[in-house]
Design a protein that fits this description.
By secondary structure, the chain is of the alpha/beta class. It contains five helices and five strands. The protein has one domain (2-139): HUPs (Rossmann fold).
Amino acid sequence: MKILLATDGSNHARKAVDYVIKHSAMLGDEPDLTLVHVQARLPNRAAAALSRAAVDRYYRDQAEKALAPARRALTAKGIAFKEAKLFGDAGETIASLAAKGKFSLIVMGSRGMGGFGSIVLGSVAHKVLASCKVPALIVR
């Protein structure tokens, strides 16, 4: 089974990682797992005011901060995975990657670290569900 596990480092994303770990036997003998983090690009004015090295360091640090907890948890349980660090609108980018990569399942938290949360479902999860035909497991 080819699984796309989205993370932003939030508590809900960690619950999604924990779900995958707990139910790894259900996902097949050797699931093809990809851990993905999508960052919004800095506004052009902000990026222009900084050096290229500073912008690159910012992106690298933010990706590391988001991926590190999931990476540690999966590695500790001996679950192999690949990583994808992408840029763009998180919902659209996750949905696009899932479709183009022919993933069998998307697993993600119900809400992430976005500034405006929904009472029931976060905007990224909502956008993935609305724009993707790949089955999605939303973990609360």
